[in-house]
Amino acid sequence: MGCNIAIDGPAGAGKSTIAKRVAKELSFIYVDTGAMYRAVALYLLRNEIDGTDAEAVADNCQSAEVFIRYENGEQVVILNGENVNQYIRTEEVGNMASKTSANPAVRAHLLNLQRNLAAKNDVVMDGRDIGTVVLPDAQVKIYLTASVETRAKRRYDEYLAKGESADLEEIKKDIENRDHQDMTREISPLRQAEDAVLVDSSFMNIDEVVAAILEIYKDKVE
Hints:
Layout: E1 4-8, H1 15-26, E2 29-31, H2 33-46, H3 54-61, E3 66-71, E4 74-79, E5 82-83, H4 91-100, H5 104-120, E6 123-127, H6 130-134, E7 140-145, H7 148-161, H8 168-184, E8 197-200, H9 206-221
Parallel strand pairs: 1-6, 1-7, 2-6, 7-8
Antiparallel strand pairs: 3-4, 4-5
Helix pairs in contact: 1-9, 2-4, 3-5, 7-8
């Protein structure tokens, strides 16, 4: 059985950035759940399935076998034996993923794939419901958060760094709305698992957060 680290938290908390760094430090596989949904979307597109036809999506998604592995330090998404990295980041695939990711059959199918991946490998997985639903038996569970103000300022700075204009107050409102949606949604709402360790990164940089999580890992596993 693999060692599993589950990192959950609200939008803008830096989960993916932190999860990738932690996985690299420990030589674990970082499981990009979003990429897995995109791989299923690619399969459906290739088979000309209408993304708005819930029954057709449910009937066909089971044939998409998705796996993640590392080759030369790069995460590779495998769909039915094929490396599909170069195909899953298109706008067309993204739109299809948006339509199909909420389908219960797609979620159930990927849940099984994610659990199988975690059972056979040492993984770091991040999301909204990893510690509560996807990997409830993970050896290490982290709830990574930061104040709304901090998360808004980080996103604002990212826009400015790209040369894009942004409104700090609008970003703050968007994050507050996203938090409410994530915490009140019917399926797998965002919440801190009872056995998760809270890490508030409001006054921490990336290196400090990674170091804190590695310490938690050492305390619980080593």
